[in-house]
Design goal:
Number of domains: 1
Shape: elongated
Radius of gyration: 17 Å
Low-confidence stretches: none
Length: 61
């Protein structure tokens, strides 16, 4: 569970921004989007392979 301590003199918007950054860094929102709908194992493999290929292309540069 992601937690953010709000300081006494800190505005709510700033604390919310820090919370969102932490969630993005942990990949929480991405994970929620992935499990929102069922994905067949073949689609998972295809997505992972495409991600690996894209990462390999970027590493070559």
């Amino acid at each position: 569970m992601t937690k953010v301590r709000v300081k006494s003199d800190e505005p709510f918007e700033k604390a919310l921004r820090r919370f969102k950054k932490k969630c993005n860094k942990e990949g929480l929102m991405q994970r929620l989007k992935e499990v929102k709908y069922y994905e067949k194992p073949s689609e998972q493999r295809r997505r992972r392979l495409a991600k690996a290929v894209a990462r390999a292309v970027l590493d070559e540069m």
